[in-house]
Amino acid sequence: MSFQKKDLITIKDLSASDINYFVETAKEFKKISLKDIKKVPTLRGKTVVNIFYEPSTRTRSSFEIAQKRLSADSLSITVSQSSVVKGESLKDTLLNLEAMKPDAFVVRHSESGAAHFISKITKASVVNAGDGINEHPTQCLLDIMTVAEVKKDFKSLKVAIIGDIYHSRVARSDIYGFSKLGAEIYLYAPHSLLPRMIEYGGGKVFIAKSMEEAVKNADVIIMLRIQKERASYYFIPSIEEYRNFFKLTPELLSKADKKVIVLHPGPVNRDVEISGSIINENKTHIFKQVENGVAVRMACLYILIGYQKLNG
Amino acid sequence: MDKLLIKNGIVIDPLTKTEVKRDIYIENGIIKDLPVKKPTVDKGVVKTISADGLIVFPGLIDMHVHLREPGYEYKETIKSGMEAAISGGFTSICCMPNTKPVNDSEEVTRFLIDKAKNLDLINLFPIGAISKGLKGVSLADIGKLKEAGAVALSDDGNPVEDSALMGRALLYADTFNLPVISHSEDIKLRGKGVINEGVMSERLGVIGMPSIAEDIGTARDVILAGYYGVKLHVAHVSTAGSVNIIKQAKKIGIKVTCETCPHYFSLTEESLLDYNTNAKMNPPLRTEMDKRAVVEAIQDGTIDVIATDHAPHSKDEKDDTLDAAPFGIIGLETSLPLTLRLFHDKKISLIRIAELMSLNPAKILNISGRGSVSNGYIGDITVVDLNKKWQFTEREIKSLSKNSPFIGEKFKGKTSFVMAGGKILKEN
Ligand SMILES: [Zn+2]
Ligand SMILES: [Zn+2]
């Protein structure tokens, strides 16, 4: 088993067996995080540059920890307060960093397609850590890993994705990823926040008629974050209204199967998209997701840089 | 009264498209098939109404009414509006949100519903605002409005200028299966116009509103509904252009419905000849060609509903120049007689009238149990004497405001009985 690409930009590029390969590899790496000495020499002498054009505490620290545990040399740049201010283009920034011969870039950008753009400039591997509203492939892989630890078979697994689907790179990647493994996807959102089309490469994607319907039949519930700005652009009336009609409450959750897996990519707006009590009472897998995130990111760097070693 | 028998009327049922002489039996407010053994006409137990030679319609529903309460009670209150509605044969009315405060909240919606409940006259179905304060800047709390009892949303009075807001309102409302009613108009193109732009505006020397301001607004709203695959109801269609746009839209499967008002198929801009402020409304009275197009659209099914756009204004407000007087006319008491003229002129059937004024509004607004005279439906009934001749005089107007261009008009056909939930509200 191997992966034949330099970069991880989109889940669309991955076959079902690619996804399983990433997840199986991540399971191996997870063992390292459970050891007393959480470090292996796998990527010793390799350089990874994390470029974040958008602030992110969670994803960035997850990648940084993954790199440290693999003994890579890493550097994190938050670009918003450096070159961009000086007027340097994305291309020039990358060409300069490229000259320092890194082995991989981890890229987060507020513009869709940024990771793709960078992957064309550099010979190094590129891991998309979230581009605009487009995709967040490592989040998808860690979500799949978290579910795979509980559910063996993804065939006709029912995955409800609820919230701001239209603007969610997590939703986009999850829809592709879960449906490639045979799951059925049920979307629920204010209709102003649903995607315009639901063609996802032949995946079984449906629009649920109500929040209750989406929750009741689900094996997995993925709640998405709603941003306050959505009210200013008329996608929703107000956060108060959103809370009233689109929040996952204990009452709603009680209608679901007892073994339902509740996920959220974070950061959570407590009592906006999900009741705080659901998190407090440990009814979600949110912290499992964070834990698995490190393992997935270790696996991604290992696989992509490993490919570079063979083909570079 | 628990039991009511309406005997020998010609019953018009738009649901089954039937027009037959039969009795209607109402028990505890619900229409029931007559028991095999006829209820004993033991006076006091069963009240009998003789509808010999009369027409029995399902209770009429006016889905476009401006009551002025809260805020402008000197023009109209909920009570006076309901009295005008009863006089005109309506058992249900829907009130637009442009009151003070605007009905953009559950509080105002609840106030209206509670007030109507206390009055215990006819049914009141509030329409909530699309945007907060009707300002077109942010969405009203639409889910909350629905929860409180609003049956539809509209920013009527103002078109929603921002296409993004209109599109997202249609989508967001669709989440709650709440119909959106558009006042479709390009407001910049309307400008300061006060009547239809054309021969009459030139003759009177006043600024006109081009008919295309309505057409463009209608086209935009229909395109939005078509693109997003959601329902839209267009209010007060008055132009041949709008009619045509809606006709084409329906042909290609866009989920659009629309209404017109009696004045658009009864009058033209000629009525403004004396700078008559009681003929000033928005959309304005148009040309003979538009009027003909509206009548044809009523006949061919392009127009789904006849609504009044009842818009009361006080005498003092209307007693001003054409430029300064407010837009709007009252309509509840003349809507049915004006529509009956189309029947008398052999343009439409009585079944079609029942569709336009009862069944279709109920369907569009998801009002269950109304719009038909059949078993299990609510006992909302309007009984009409088709041949009764009468004159509409200012003295008889029940509405607090008298701003009608039809004062002095002679009519054939008048409401004889009105009952809501089996309760008799008007009896001649
Ligand atoms: Zn209007
Ligand atoms: Zn109106």
Model description:
The complex is a heterodimer of chains A (312) and B (428). Chain A is α/β, with parallel strands linked by helices. Chain A is 40% helix and 15% strand. In chain A, helix 1 packs across helix 6, helix 1 packs across helix 12 and helix 2 packs across helix 12. Chain A starts with 15 loop residues before the first helix and ends with a helix. By secondary structure, chain B is α/β, with parallel strands linked by helices. In chain B, the strands form three sheets. In chain B, strands 1, 2, 3, 4, 5, 16, 17 and 18 form an eight-stranded mixed β-sheet that branches. Chain B has an eight-stranded parallel β-sheet with strand order 6-7-8-9-10-13-14-15. The longest helix of chain B has 18 residues. Chains A and B meet through helix 9 of A and helix 3 and helix 4 of B. The structure holds zinc ion (2 copies). One zinc ion (ZN) binds next to loops of chain B.
Task: Based on the model shown, name its key terms.
heterodimer, A: 312 residues, alpha/beta, Rossmann fold, five-stranded parallel beta sheet, 40% helix, globular, B: 428 residues, Urease, subunit C, domain 1, TIM Barrel, 2 domains, eight-stranded mixed beta sheet, eight-stranded parallel beta sheet, 31% helix, binds zinc ion
